[in-house]
């Protein structure tokens, strides 16, 4: 017990020294002759270098024709992650319907994907905050195409701001798009599916801070936490009707729409990479492959789950001592000598 207290005390003191030095630009890190800036430049280089062991494979993962004769509906399908998923589903044989508020972007994306896959991509201009508009769209879809086999709730709205600057209107807007929009879509189409005795797969897109919480995006954290609760609840209740519900929680994947609001200057990208153990950002194709798998019959026993796709960023951010990965072997030699020299408790 005394030895345990001794080691714990030594570790606490050493980590405090390390922490103080890491965050003090004027001090050295464990006296190796390197300033903090030099040290972190080396650390970032190492991270980028070892990312070669984790190359992004973005080619189609599933067999051709996986989604033949299947109908997919995707909100936020004209840009970013939704667009990437729409492309993959279409390439794998699905009839895809994308929805978004931008008519111009819908037309552009529909044509682009159709030319690439050879399959028609339909689209509807839709504000997911409006239940009446949702009903009208699904009336049209059901009449012309039938009920979807796959429903992806990807529409989102987020931005960074100190919470003391967050207005009630801004908070409500994000809640209405992310949480209420997902609920309106899910409940409308779900009731139709139950009536028709038809099964389907639902997939929502969340973020790790729905679980952990996060400063400066409290509006989005609250909304996405609600989406995850909705998903888990319905995965239990509606499985008896032939429906599965899952969530993908992606880490940093650079898309123009998201990064323009969350990292408008681009200065935080390197810091994000430092927090990702595999040493790189994710790619849209990686998200799309995982999403296609979760929407396919290959995953028919996966239900009510939140699947994290983040290169290890979430557990890395949670561990108290994970910043020690920035230390070099030389610095560890010094620290181990300090630990061995500790006497008493």
Q: Which outline best applies?
A: globular
Question: Structural class given helices, strands, pairing?
Answer: alpha/beta
Poorly predicted parts: 1-11, 21-46
Distance linking N and C termini: 10 Å
Secondary structure tally: strands: 7
Largest β-sheet summary: 7 strands, parallel
DSSP helical segment count = 13
**Rg (CA only):** 24 Å
Overall pLDDT level: 86
Secondary-structure element string: HHEHEHEHEHEHHEHHHEHH
Helical amount among residues, as a percent range?
A: 40-55%
Oligomer, anyone? single chain
Residue share in β-strands? 5-15%
Q: Can you list the strand order of the major beta sheet?
A: 3-2-1-4-5-6-7
GO molecular function, one term: 2,4-dienoyl-CoA reductase (NADPH) activity
Protein name: 2,4-dienoyl-CoA reductase [(3E)-enoyl-CoA-producing], mitochondrial-like
Keywords: Oxidoreductase
GO cellular component, one term: mitochondrion
Q: Could you please describe the fold and organization of this structure?
A:
It is a single chain. This protein is an alpha/beta fold and 345 residues long. Residues 1-11 and 21-46 have low confidence and may be disordered. It has helices at 2-22, 36-50, 80-91, 103-117, 131-144, 168-196, 209-212, 218-237, 256-262, 269-274, 284-295, 313-318, 329-340, and strands spanning 71-75, 95-100, 121-125, 150-153, 200-205, 243-250, 305-309.
């Amino acid at each position: 017990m005394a030895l345990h207290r001794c080691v714990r005390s030594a570790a606490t003191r050493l980590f405090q020294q390390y922490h103080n030095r890491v965050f003090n630009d004027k001090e050295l890190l464990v006296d190796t002759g390197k300033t903090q800036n030099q040290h972190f430049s080396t650390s970032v280089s190492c991270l980028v270098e070892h990312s070669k062991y984790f190359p992004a494979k973005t080619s189609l993962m599933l067999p051709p024709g996986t989604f033949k004769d299947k109908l997919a509906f995707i909100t936020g399908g004209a840009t970013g992650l939704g667009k990437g998923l729409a492309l993959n589903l279409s390439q794998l044989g699905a009839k895809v319907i994308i929805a978004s508020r931008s008519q111009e972007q819908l037309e552009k994306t529909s044509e682009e994907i159709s030319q690439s896959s050879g399959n028609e991509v339909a689209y509807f201009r839709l504000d997911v905050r409006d239940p009446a508009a949702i009903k009208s769209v699904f009336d049209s879809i059901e009449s012309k195409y039938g009920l979807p086999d796959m429903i992806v709730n990807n529409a989102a709205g987020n931005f960074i701001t100190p919470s003391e600057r967050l207005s009630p209107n801004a908070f409500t807007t994000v809640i209405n798009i992310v949480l209420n929009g997902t609920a309106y879509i899910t409940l409308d189409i779900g009731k139709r599916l139950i009536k028709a005795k038809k099964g389907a797969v639902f997939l929502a897109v969340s973020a790790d801070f729905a679980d952990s919480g996060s400063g400066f995006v409290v509006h989005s954290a609250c909304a996405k936490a609600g989406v995850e609760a909705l998903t888990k609840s319905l995965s239990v209740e509606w499985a008896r009707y032939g429906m599965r519900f899952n969530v993908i929680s992606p880490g940093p994947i650079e898309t123009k729409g998201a990064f323009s609001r969350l990292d408008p200057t681009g200065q935080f990208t390197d810091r994000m990479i430092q927090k990702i153990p595999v040493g790189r950002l994710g790619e849209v194709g990686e998200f799309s492959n995982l999403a296609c798998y979760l929407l396919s019959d290959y995953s028919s026993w996966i239900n009510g789950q939140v699947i994290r796709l983040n290169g290890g960023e979430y557990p890395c951010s949670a561990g108290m001592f994970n910043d020690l990965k920035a230390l070099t072997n030389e610095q560890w030699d010094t620290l181990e000598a300090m630990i061995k020299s500790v006497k008493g408790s």
